[in-house]
Amino acid sequence: MVTLTALGSDRDFDDSAEARAIRVEQLLILTRLTPLFALANMINSALTVAVLWDHAPRMVGLLWCLVIAVLSVTRLPAWWRHRDAPRPSDVRVEIIQRSGYLATAVGLVWGLGCAYLYPANAPEQQMFLAMVVAGMGAGGAAGLASVPRASIGFAGALLLPFMVRVLWEGTTLNQAMAAMGVLFIGVVVVLSRSSYAGFLDAVRMRVANDGLLRDLEAARADLLDAVASTSEAFAFYDENDRLQVFNDNYLNMLSDLPTPPRQGMTFAEINQAMPPPLLCEGRRMAAEEWRQWRLRQHRECAGSFQQKHHSGRWMLTADRRTRRGGTVTVHVDITDLKAREDELKLARDEAQGANRAKSEFLALMSHELRTPLNAILGFSEILREESFGPHHDKRYVEYAQNIFDSGSHLLRMITEILDLSKIEAGKFELYPEEFELAQPFEDIRRIMGHTAQGADLTLTVEPADGLRPIYADLRAVRQMLINLVANAVKFTPPGGRVTVSARQTEDETEITVVDSGVGIAEADIPRVLEPFSQVDGPMNRRHEGTGLGLPLVRSLMQLHGGELRIDSMVDAGTTVRLLFPRQEQSPAEPA
Q: Given this model, what pLDDT does residue 362 score?
């Protein structure tokens, strides 16, 4: 910040942008005032000599007037040479200093001359001379306020010799004039400093504005460079919907137009010349329909849309409103993306077809396998029960039991595969009915009781009395409970417990199967819900299994609109919850 002193700035040699701007502005002001000051000095000095012609030495007056004229016109040649020159970027400090020295010299000549020419015993001429000195001092101080060194130097050099001469007279009038002169000098100094402070503020404001303007221009240039270098077609329309900024990609995209887009064109004009795309949002449009639709889309900024051009390229177009009411339009080439989407869609269709083929194959093979398996189970049961007489070797009974157990296991596995395949193929049908939970609970107690007893486990099926009936597929519910209890028995060490219970709320029925088995790590729970996936562990290696039990239960629950939840910790057991939403029996269905 430039500091004011009695004669100007104590940073005359500062090379900052602000200091350079101050020196340039000072020079311009001095240049503009040079002819005015020269003319004022010559006229006032000549008029003063004329008024004092009969009351002061004439030759001294003429010589004084000549010196002032010479000093006044000293800068006129330089002013004439530079009057039409462009605004300089900097000014040497010495030029400003010489201007101060010249102003001080002119003021000193004025002061000494007026002091010497001061008439004795001529009050009217004395008052005239005092007014001339005051006027010249005030005018010089005000006109040179932007250069404090020149302003104070001129006013001080003018007033001080004249005041000494006035005091020398010793009269009351002269003393009063001297007092007024002292006051005038103080006022001139204060006004000069105040004017200079205002001048500095104005220059600083302009420097700041210039810097801000440069920053804005740089930001605008960067923005234009970014727009030009972006791979998307970009256009900006102002609040009057006139094109202001666009890049080459935008021009290339509209290269088929009769008249290329140019700055100032409205979107309506450009849109009127646009040919309709081959497809827009998946459908064809006539030319006029397309133009009306596109104009409305642009003005409402109704989001993005896809269009396919006749060249085969796909474009994603988006219109966005700016804060000031303009519109930014961006066109993104998504041809490669659409090609990848088509590839993914084809791959998905092929995968779905393969999955359907797999499901149909499994369903067919499972059906074909069940017929011979039923025969195997039937004949092995006859052999096991010795229906046509005892075997002479009891090992046949044991072998028949092994055949029956293996066939039963294979039949269960085939049934699970068949059901899961039907669900995946969307061909599994539920046959819901209203029933009491006590019915499937009793089936579980009867079917799985011997299995749990053989594994040295305690199976507890809590009573379901007092619960309202549920509306579901009884066979599917029974199958889910058998799978869950069989899993619990399989993975619970001897001496453990398996508990089946149920509870209801206003909105759902919850069936819970809890065991004290080996448990499942939290990270492995998603795996056990995938078909044919098992978590390795000591209990797995001692038991057979396909890994279809839990996936089948989850799929059946999803068909019921319910949810399967598993909470488990390693060595702390597992809790499986079946959550059935409350459903009322349809009036059209029989009870």
A: 65
Same domain, yes or no: 260 and 296: yes
Instruction: List 536's β-bridge partners, or say none.
Output: none
Statement: the pTM of the whole predicted model exceeds 0.70: no
Mean pLDDT along residues 474-489: 88
Q: How many domains is the chain partitioned into structurally?
A: 4
Alpha helices, H only, 386-394:
none
Q: Is the pLDDT of residue 11 over 50?
A: no
Rounded to whole angstroms, what are the CA distances from 407 to 132, 176, 374? 134, 138, 8
In the chain the first and final C-alpha atoms are separated, in Å, by 96
Give me the residues paired with residue 511 across strands: 502, 578
Residue 321 phi/psi, 5° resolution?
-85, 140
Residues 21 and 127 in one domain: yes
Please name the residue ranges forming H helices in 386-425: 395-425
Domain membership of residue 310 (yes or no) is: yes
Looking at 306, 333, 360, the residue that finishes a domain is 333
Q: Exposed, middle or buried, 394 (CB in 10 Å: 0-12/13-18/19+)?
A: exposed
Residue 173 lies in a domain: yes
Residue 187 amino acid letter? V
Among 525, 583, 570, 581, which residue's Cα sits nearest to residue 551?
525
- Three-state SS at 564: strand
Match 């669900």 to its residue by tokens.
423
Question: Are 396 and 420 in a shared domain?
Answer: yes
Is 478 within the bounds of a domain?
Answer: yes
319 C-beta neighbours (distance < 10 Å), count: 21
Q: Is 507 found in the same domain as 457?
A: yes
pLDDT, tens only, 343-401: 888 888 888 777 777 766 766 666 677 678 777 878 887 877 777 878 787 787 788 77
Structure tokens at 546: 């396909």
- For 170-185, write each residue's pLDDT tens digit: 667 667 766 776 777 7
Gap between the Cα atoms of 566 and 294, Å rounded: 53
Domain of residue 282: give its range: 233-333
pLDDT at 239: 92
Q: Is the pLDDT of residue 588 over 50?
A: no
